[in-house]
Design goal:
The structure holds two protein chains of two kinds. Chain A contains 16 helices and 19 strands. By secondary structure, chain A is an alpha/beta fold. Chain A has three domains: 156 residues, Aconitase, domain 3, CATH 3.30.499; 98 residues, Aconitase, Domain 2, CATH 3.40.1060; 178 residues, 2-Layer Sandwich (Aconitase, domain 3). In chain A, the strands form five sheets. A five-stranded parallel beta sheet of chain A has the order 5-4-3-6-7. Chain A has a five-stranded parallel beta sheet with strand order 17-16-15-18-19. In chain A, strands 11-10-9-12 form a four-stranded parallel beta sheet. Chain B is of the alpha/beta class. Chain B has a single domain, classed as Aconitase, domain 4, CATH 3.20.19. Classes of the chains: A alpha/beta, B alpha/beta. The interface between A and B is large, with 79 and 60 residues.
């Protein structure tokens, strides 16, 4: 019978189907960071349990790590915020105690867990992969079944190498055609979320296919799968092809020699069959997607850069009107205001959505030879890992950013979620390449606008949103 | 984990769709390495008029009088009524920890986000999904009558309103069993240790690179 990619991955990891409809699913790879793991390790200790398979686990601190050289110079002990320091130290202690491989704070391989996994080849096609972070959907770009879990499940995977699950439904997002120059993977996924809403993918594994997806680089595919969760889907997926194999080959954790050939033979089967049936299909025309900017406090609140903030008076129903009104109030915007009129205070280029080398190249291309607007308080560029930073510096991107007036930082989650020193002040508007524009996400009272790296760089130069296609 | 069988709980209405996990427990409180103590910071940005910090004494902070949980009639509420897509956003289990630590035992909404839906029952928090019209009606009833309580019976899978109306809800049999018995998933899974080992032995031949 014809199967979807999700069906194939599910079947390949089924340990036991239970009578009550749940299934025991084997987990190949487990990524850990400092925020959602301490209580799980504590649970293991209290129950006198040991990790089931040590080499399935890979850890790195990311959410809490400071991104300035000054604070990073002394390692963990140099983290000024005490609670952050304790959390990072606790991850180190737990990994040392249980024998888990960890890329510690100043290891060149440290970075955002969803950048590090693929970069190391720890994320491979055909794997099941989980992490105590909802943006684990990122790894689905490799035809891997990957999703976020809570701390109880982090502990469950550590102790059993399995999870108790129910099968999800299949959703296909088909994006065909060619993107306009200046329009990127980030604009595709924001347009998808705008189309189906933040709960549109709830209960589904969301596969992305079509000519616009298959022509994307792995970085672009990761950006798209990363935000599947913002459309409600825990799982994002893209089928395996030559682009996937070329990315994976030669990475430290990837198979080598004979095992590589054996793996490729299997990985080449990891795509939905031509006649596979999906429970739901959504189609988008790539050519009609414009650069997107979020205006509200939910990722579904997006419009094209040349559009306007919507008018709650025109909302389709009462609940929508109320949520638009609340969002406009929080964001300090007026109905029908042009997006290009929104004045910015800060710009953030980084996060597990957009901090890979291709993202930095796209931003640098826009920034090259220009200057950050004098009205901006800060424009940050934060590479996703030590290795991304090194690569960018080899290409001279750091110089382009610094000359333009951006700050060039050390790797980490940074201003995506304000668990470290990088934050928005109250009422400040930020063009951000991150994934969530929830109230307070980037700092108390902060106002987030989600955009692509190229759009963020252009906004930094102009001081307000501009259409990068005309820049 | 606290067992859940029956509850006759006071209901608090949080009339808002897409209540996200950042709203339930803001990021600065995720730095704790414990599972408890999140209750005073539940809905921190809605509940207080100032910015909250970990470890501070919340009893001295200015309360937002408009926020539902600050109103006298909703003190000691154990059932939270909300709108669609409750719990969307991050995978932080700190969200159900905060709701439970505050004193909530159940949340009623038309729909829940997937990861939150998975996390909550592992902490004894019952999630009840009722259709949008019913939830709408419950909002009207809660707002209209002070001291409004709902009788939740998990074994029977029913919610009974003060007027005696009985509403049935769906429940996954495995989650129901674990909630009623207060069971730990890990212990249940480890009963299948032999099946897990057999799976690994089979896969080691088929996909050896996974086990390198």
């Amino acid at each position: 019978m014809a199967q979807t990619l999700y069906d194939k991955l599910w079947d390949a990891h089924l340990v036991k189907q239970r009578d009550d409809g749940t299934a025991l699913i084997y987990i190949d790879r487990h990524l850990l960071h400092e925020v959602t793991s301490p209580q799980a390790f504590e649970g293991l200790r209290l129950a006198n349990r040991k990790p089931w398979r040590l080499n399935a686990n890979l850890a790195t601190p990311d959410h809490n790590v400071p991104t300035t050289l000054k604070e990073r110079a002394q390692g963990v002990s140099g983290i000024e915020d005490e609670t952050s320091r304790i959390q990072v130290q606790t991850l180190d202690d737990n990994c040392d105690e249980f024998g888990i491989t960890e890329f510690k704070i100043n290891d060149l391989r440290q970075g955002i867990v969803h950048v590090v996994g693929p970069e190391q080849g720890a994320t491979l096609p055909g794997m099941t992969l989980v992490c105590g972070d909802s943006h684990t959907a990122t790894h689905g770009a490799f035809a891997a079944l990957a999703h976020g879990v809570g701390t109880s499940e982090v502990e469950h995977v550590l102790a059993t190498q399995c999870l108790i699950q129910r099968k999800m439904k299949n959703l296909l997002i088909q994006v065909d055609g060619e993107l306009q120059p200046g329009v990127t993977a980030k604009d595709i996924i924001l347009a998808v979320i705008g189309e189906i809403g933040t709960a549109g993918g709830t209960g589904y594994a969301m596969e992305f296919a079509g000519s616009a997806i298959s022509s994307l680089s792995m970085e672009g595919r990761m950006t798209i799968c990363n935000m599947a969760i913002e459309a409600g889907a825990r799982v994002g997926l893209v089928g395996c092809d030559q682009i996937t194999l070329d990315y994976v080959k030669g990475r430290p954790f990837a198979p080598k020699g004979e095992q590589w050939d054996q793996a490729v033979a299997y990985w080449n089967t990891l795509h939905s069959d031509a006649d596979a049936v999906f429970d739901k299909v959504v189609k988008l025309d790539a050519a009609s997607i414009e650069p997107q900017v979020s205006w509200g406090t939910s990722p579904e609140m997006v419009v094209a850069v040349n559009g306007r903030v919507p008018d709650p008076a025109k909302a389709a129903d009462e609940n929508l009107r109320k949520s638009w009104e609340a969002a406009l109030k929080y964001m300090g915007l007026k109905p029908n205001q042009a997006i290009t009129d929104i004045q910015l205070d800060r710009v953030f280029i980084g996060s597990c959505t957009n901090s890979r080398i291709e993202d930095l190249r796209a931003a640098a291309e826009v920034a090259k030879g220009r200057k950050v607007a004098a009205t901006l308080k800060q424009a940050l560029v934060v590479p996703g890992s030590g290795l991304v930073k090194q690569q960018a510096e080899e290409e001279g991107l750091d110089k382009i950013f610094i000359e333009a007036g951006f700050e060039w930082r050390e790797p980490g989650c940074s201003m995506c979620l304000a668990m470290n020193a990088d934050k928005l002040g109250q009422g400040e508007h930020c063009a951000s390449t991150s994934n969530r524009n929830f109230e307070g996400r980037q700092g108390y009272g902060g106002r987030t606008h989600l955009v692509s790296p190229a759009m963020a760089a252009a906004a930094a130069i102009a001081g307000h949103f501009v259409d990068v296609r005309e820049f | 984990m606290q067992k859940f069988t029956q509850l006759n709980g006071l209901v608090a209405p949080l009339d808002r769709a897409n209540v996200d996990t950042d709203l339930i427990i803001p990021k600065q409180f995720l730095k704790s390495i414990k599972r408890t103590g999140f209750g005073p910071n539940l809905f921190d940005e809605l509940r207080y008029l100032d910015e909250g910090f970990p470890g501070q004494d919340c009893s001295q902070r200015p309360l937002n009088p408009d926020f539902v949980l600050n109103q006298p009639r909703f003190q000691q509420s154990e059932v939270l009524l909300s709108r669609q897509n409750f719990g969307c956003g991050s995978s932080r289990e700190h969200a159900p920890w905060a709701l439970v630590d505050y004193g909530f035992r159940a949340v009623i909404a038309p729909s829940f986000a997937d990861i939150f839906f998975n996390n909550a029952p592992k902490n004894g928090l019952l999630l009840i999904q009722l259709d949008e019209n019913t939830v709408d009606r419950l909002f009207n009833e809660v707002n209209a009558s002070e001291g409004y309580r709902l009788l939740i019976d998990l074994p029977a899978q029913t919610v009974t309103t003060p007027s005696g109306e009985v509403l049935r809800f769906e429940m996954d049999p495995f989650r129901k069993h674990c909630l009623i018995e207060g069971l730990d998933d890990i212990g249940i899974t480890l009963q299948d240790a032999d099946a897990i080992k057999a799976y690994e032995a089979k896969q080691a031949a088929h996909t050896p690179w996974i086990f390198n």
